[in-house]
Amino acid sequence: MTATTATPTGLPAHDRAALRREAARVLLTNWTGTSTVPSRTLYPHQWSWDSAFIAIGLRHLSPRRAQRELETLLGAQWADGRVPHIVFNPAVPLGAYFPSPDFWQSSTAGRAAGAPSGVETSGIVQPPVHALAAALVHERDPECSRRRGFLERVYPRLVAWHAYLLRERDFTGHGLASIVHPWESGMDNSPCWNGPLRKVVPVPAVSFRRADLVHSDPADRPTDLDYGRYVRLAADYRGHGYRDAGTPHAFAVEDPGFNALLIASEHALAGIAAALGRDPRPHRARAEALTDSLVRHLWQPHAGMFLCRDVRADRVIEEKSVTGLLPLVAPSLPDHVASALSRTARGEHFGLGSTTALVPSYDLRGDAFDPSRYWCGPAWFNINWVVERGLRLHGATAEADALRRAVLDAAGASRFAEYVDPHTGRGRGATDFGWTAAVAIDLLARHAHDRDQDRDRNQDHGRDQDRRERR
């Protein structure tokens, strides 16, 4: 194969190598010595689910550094088990990001809930991708992992993290974890939250200063009204000591994507337990129970996908968001549900493979669709990584291959943008974004692994054919 021969990634071989080099440059540039920032300008601290995706890519460059990424995050875990969505770097000026550590006041307001005293964090959480990331990091270099005692250190922390969600956040008794702030979904201003947020009285916009608008186009970002409500919810949670029980949560939602990632991570915990010589069956049982509950309570056949539930109003939220496609990542999802999700992803609401190359974050036909505003429509690279994994897991190999090519093409063309317009592929938000570079590296590595396996299978087939002919 020559340097300009097209490859199954959709890129010439030399471009594929250049893409990997550039993605590696992003991760190395964003490394702080203990963790990786999503963006040097827009997000200058450590974010929870960003670090999980970053570790998944970083493992191909430095398994040890990928382990350190997760260890640093879990080192800020609270005594009640929660993993905070931000771990603040004390060297970063307070004005560089809002809400800053002096807003969250974790070490004082969160003391009763077990916030660490030696580091400042936020008081809310993000989707639990961490056990999946830890398992993949271990698989990349088991010898390095065993030598450093990586799994032994992170396993009890990951168990406590899942236990917190299943113990403290099951508000309905359905066996599903609820989110208490839109930021906990990771999909901050998704139109799914508009209905529940209407009950939240926003703080005045003059009472806070948004650092994000200094580094980003306001048309790409949530509105001041959104932020006023976000601040109100976070301040109220802080005022109740970040306790879940007994706090009158103005916003509480069962989010299918959040719970799907919990399921995938619970399956990963089973693998970690087995690698440590412990019993994996309790983790598998919890994963199956979560899957059953997810299908029973959030699967909506009329929509062909999972929908969120407003816990306070006890009603399904009819808005269609990509969060409702993420259960594809659950291994034991019923076949008819997985098939329906694949059809919905390719249908008129998300257009995968026809009107869009990447899955958008929100319904293309929805009234609130906006191709440039944060989670109101743009396509995100980490989410498409999850969808690609889910499609492949459930046998939609051709669709997964096409999505992998599209992710790699868009990542390179957009300079590793935070997210892209789902129709044009134009980059929006920050560039040189951590998880965009990370998932590109991971997809490139998995393509190379698949290609090598195909070559080995073909060679084995050829040898078998030669033996048959010699007979």
Provide an overview of this structure.
With 471 residues, this protein is mostly helical. The protein has a domain of 322 residues: Glycosyltransferase, CATH 1.50.10.10. Helix content is 48%, strand content 5%. The chain contains 17 helices and eleven strands. The strands form four sheets. Strands 3-4-7-8 form a four-stranded antiparallel β-sheet. A three-stranded antiparallel β-sheet has the order 9-10-11. A hairpin with a 4-residue loop joins strand 5 and strand 6. Helix 6 packs across helix 7. It is globular and about 70 Å long. The chain starts with 12 loop residues before the first helix and ends with a helix. The N terminus is likely disordered.
Please tell me the CATH architecture of the domain at 67-388 by its name. Alpha/alpha barrel
Instruction: Give the N-terminus to C-terminus distance in angstroms.
Output: 33 Å
Average pLDDT metric: 93
Poorly predicted parts:
1-9
CATH third-level topology of the domain at 67-388: Glycosyltransferase
Global geometry:
globular
**What strand line-up does the widest sheet have?**
3-4-7-8
Helix content: 40-55%
Strand content: under 5%
CATH class annotation of the domain at 67-388? Mainly Alpha
Number of helices: 17
Please outline the major beta sheet: 4 strands, antiparallel
Radius of gyration: 22 Å
User: Helix/strand-derived class?
Assistant: mainly alpha
Topology order in helix (H) and strand (E) letters: HEHHEHHHHHEHHHEHHEEEEHEHHEEH
Beta-strand segment tally: 11
